[in-house]
């Protein structure tokens, strides 16, 4: 029998570390433009794959080695308790399916929280030394540099892609897809990179590194950045093989750098890390994230306190050069106010003048834009917590509930028909979606992370203290930033990795766990049946995890065809999307719209009715059904009680969303057709109070008020609106017409 002569324990541990590092790099940088949700949809699908591989290798190791010493940490019970309470919140959710898988756009349901938990436990069990921690940081350095370089490309209007939602030359989005999320990532990367930048490095006198030794680490770092730039300028969305092959090369280059960066000459490594730090800061500046900037300064303070004066003064020259460059970049950038985060601070804080008495005007502060809407969102959050105190409404379902708790001012601060899916504040998001029990567990968890770090701060070596400073500052800056934003897969996954790094950084370095002797194990001795079973079982969740991914590819194609007016192609793609993944309400809604544009009312009703079953809280589907049945009544189409069906669906709409102005307008139309003029006028008034910009509503209030002999009442309504919304020209026109007659 031939002996393999391999130490399988070492092989598996090394493989797990390599796959883990690949996940840390790949998750934030990957995106696929074929998808409707280009960024998070791609990232969560591939993170699932990486975690499945990690778990499979771990299980196979257990089968072969027949033992595993689970490494304990002070954070184990808080993490497990938080995941357990989140599980209860998902099971008691108002929509269990969505809370488990996540809703379209974010994908942070319970299954994703389990991924974060497994990432944490991989760190605490397989990252055993300071060198391994540094490899994680080096991997993050490569990812953050790639994003920062792409951010520079976007800022200077050189991006080959036209991204929707954000004007990227004003606020860059990198490979994460949103300025605040990008800011959160580069914040964490900045403080982690400081660890490598400030640590002591000496050139070995006996064998100083030659230039040949620099080629692999430096070349791999530059190669990854160059390949990415070449890809975005030369590959189309449907060059699938080349696209993913390119990302495989970029990931391989990042891992080569992580395993070999220490071979670089200290001066060369310092220069490289200094450049990446500066790029990260520039990228942060270009996001114009106010929360990110607050997090940056908070992280700097904590880093200095934990690291201590020794590291600052010992590296005064590097700190001074980096600081001067940051100041210079900030000054040059902020010469143009439109690119300054401080301008975004001040632009949304204004003084509003109000007449409190004849001849007496009083000014008060008013928050506008995002600042104002978030304040209103937090008011809604308090109401939701009061109604769902224990386990919340469930992960990922805020969008379904928010319209019923929306404040009177929210739609005027944000926009009409905006249904918040997050509270834009971590302190509110956790209790709203997971309940106060999970919130207190989360506080216990965060407290344990920082308490563990601070408890060890005074007793560990200077080297470990620097590591602690970087990891704690990275986590702290993220928490501060998230008081004005929220987490997504690309950044929350790294945040949970940071927790594990704190646990590893403050414990004694441990060697690989003691194993039964495997040195003489032959390949024939491997239990291939259970190993094969693990591999086969792992293929199933991998396949399932890509169903929503593939469905979204067809959805994006169908939506594009719909926007181009290619209706037959749109219908076929959207139907195929539902065949692949039949649980996505957004797809059903678009299929209904495609049929409506074709004039195929029967199929539109089927598609929209199906949408109401799988996405029961989407008021838009019910509203479209309302309009269809109302049109049936007007056109005398042979249908069973079309006016009653229209009324039933419209009432469902306003029950779900009390601020759906168009539904009230339609209820007014239905009341008119029933001969109830007074009831119709009331519905139009309600629609106008919700949204004073609807032309039909304004006209109907004017018309019906005359028929009811209540023109004076209409003048009062329009007069109040005119003083509140002086930019609304249609209201002034209606007032003039009423006065003229």
Overall geometry comes to: globular
Task: Output the radius of gyration.
Answer: 29 Å
**Secondary structure category:** mainly alpha
Overall mean pLDDT stands at: 87
Helix content: over 70%
Q: Which spans of ≥5 residues are poorly predicted at pLDDT below 50?
A: 1-8
Q: Sheet bearing the most strands, described?
A: 2 strands, antiparallel
Number of helices: 32
Strand tally is 2
Strand-residue fraction? Answer: under 5%
Question: What is the first-to-last residue Cα distance?
Answer: 106 Å
Provide the spatial order of strands within the biggest beta sheet: 1-2
GO molecular function: ligase activity
Keywords: Ligase, Membrane, TPR repeat, Transmembrane, Transmembrane helix
Transmembrane segments: 12-31, 46-65, 77-98, 110-127, 136-153, 181-198, 218-235, 241-260, 267-287, 293-312, 319-335, 432-450, 486-506, 527-549
Organism: Candidatus Saganbacteria bacterium
Essential attributes:
O-antigen ligase family protein, 741 residues, 32 helices, TPR-like_helical_dom_sf, ligase activity, TPR repeat, single chain
Task: Describe what this molecule looks like in 3D.
Mean pLDDT is 87; it is low at 1-8. A two-stranded antiparallel sheet has the order 1-2. The protein starts with 7 loop residues before the first helix and ends with a helix. Helix content is 71%, strand content 2%. It is built from 32 helices and 2 strands. The protein is mostly helical. It has a domain at 346-413.
Write a brief structural summary.
The protein is mainly alpha-helical and 741 residues long. It has 32 helices and two strands. It has a domain at 346-413.
């Amino acid at each position: 029998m031939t002996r393999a002569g391999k130490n399988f324990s070492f092989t598996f541990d090394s493989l797990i570390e390599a796959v883990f590092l690949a996940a840390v790099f790949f998750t934030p940088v990957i995106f696929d433009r074929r998808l409707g949700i280009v960024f998070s949809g791609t990232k969560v699908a591939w993170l699932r794959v990486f975690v499945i591989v990690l778990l499979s290798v771990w299980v196979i190791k257990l089968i072969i080695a027949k033992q595993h010493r689970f490494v304990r940490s002070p954070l184990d019970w808080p993490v497990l308790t938080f995941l357990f309470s989140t599980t209860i919140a998902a099971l008691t959710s108002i929509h269990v399916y969505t809370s488990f898988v996540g809703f379209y756009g974010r994908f942070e349901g319970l299954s994703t929280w389990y991924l974060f938990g497994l990432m944490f436990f991989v760190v605490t069990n397989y990252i055993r030394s300071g060198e391994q921690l540094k490899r994680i940081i080096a991997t993050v350095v490569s990812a953050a540099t790639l994003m920062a370089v792409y951010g520079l490309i976007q800022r200077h209007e050189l991006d080959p892609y036209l991204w929707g939602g954000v004007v990227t030359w004003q606020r860059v989005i990198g490979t994460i897809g949103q300025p605040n999320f990008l800011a959160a990532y580069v914040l964490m990367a900045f403080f982690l990179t400081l660890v490598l930048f400030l640590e002591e490095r000496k050139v070995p006198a006996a064998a100083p590194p030659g230039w040949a030794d620099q080629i692999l680490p430096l070349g791999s770092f530059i190669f990854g950045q160059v390949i990415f730039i070449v890809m975005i300028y030369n590959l189309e969305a449907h060059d699938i093989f080349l696209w993913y092959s390119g990302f495989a090369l970029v990931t391989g280059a990042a891992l080569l750098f992580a395993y070999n960066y220490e071979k670089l000459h200290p001066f060369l490594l310092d220069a490289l890390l200094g450049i990446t730090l500066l790029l990260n800061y520039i990228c942060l500046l270009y996001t114009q994230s106010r929360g990110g900037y607050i997090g940056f300064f908070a992280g700097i303070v904590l880093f200095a306190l934990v690291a201590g004066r020794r590291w600052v003064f010992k590296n005064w020259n590097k700190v001074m050069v980096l600081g001067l460059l940051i100041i210079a970049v900030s000054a040059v950038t902020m010469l143009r106010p439109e690119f300054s985060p401080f301008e975004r601070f001040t632009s949304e804080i204004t003084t509003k003048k109000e007449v409190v008495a004849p001849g007496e005007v009083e000014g008060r502060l008013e928050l506008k834009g995002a600042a104002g809407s978030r304040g209103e969102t937090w008011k809604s959050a308090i109401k939701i917590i009061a109604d769902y105190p224990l386990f919340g409404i469930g992960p990922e379902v805020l969008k379904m509930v928010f319209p019923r708790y929306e404040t009177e001012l929210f739609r005027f601060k944000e926009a009409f028909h905006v249904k918040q899916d997050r509270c834009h504040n971590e302190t509110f998001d956790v209790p709203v979606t997971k309940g106060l029990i999970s919130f207190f567990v989360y506080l216990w968890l965060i407290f344990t992370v920082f308490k563990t770090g601070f408890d060890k701060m005074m007793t560990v070596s200077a080297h470990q203290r620097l590591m602690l400073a970087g990891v704690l500052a990275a986590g702290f800056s993220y928490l501060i930033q998230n008081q004005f934003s929220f987490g997504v897969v690309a950044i929350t996954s790294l945040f949970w990795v940071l927790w594990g790094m704190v646990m590893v950084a403050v414990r004694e370095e441990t060697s690989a766990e003691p194993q039964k002797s495997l040195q003489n194990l032959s390949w024939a001795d491997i239990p291939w049946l259970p190993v094969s079973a693990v591999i086969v079982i792992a293929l199933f969740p991998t396949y399932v995890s890509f169903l929503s991914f593939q469905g979204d590819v067809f959805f994006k194609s169908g939506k594009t065809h719909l926007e181009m007016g290619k209706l037959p192609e749109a219908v076929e793609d959207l139907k195929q999307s539902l065949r692949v993944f039949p649980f996505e309400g957004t797809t059903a809604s678009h299929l209904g719209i495609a049929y409506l544009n074709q004039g195929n009312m029967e199929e539109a009703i089927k598609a929209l009715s199906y949408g109401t079953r799988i996405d029961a809280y989407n008021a838009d589907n019910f509203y479209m059904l309302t309009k269809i049945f109302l049109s049936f009544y007007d056109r005398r189409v042979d249908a069973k009680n079309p006016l009653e069906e229209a009324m039933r669906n419209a009432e469902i709409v306003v029950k779900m969303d009390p601020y759906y102005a168009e539904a009230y307008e339609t209820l007014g139309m239905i009341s008119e057709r029933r001969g109830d003029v007074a009831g119709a006028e009331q519905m139009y008034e309600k629609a106008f109070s919700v949204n004073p910009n609807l032309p039909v509503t304004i006209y109907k209030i004017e018309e019906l008020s005359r028929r009811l002999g209540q023109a004076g009442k209409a003048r009062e309504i329009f007069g109040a609106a005119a003083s509140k919304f002086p930019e609304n020209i249609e209201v002034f026109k209606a007032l003039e017409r009423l006065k003229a007659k």
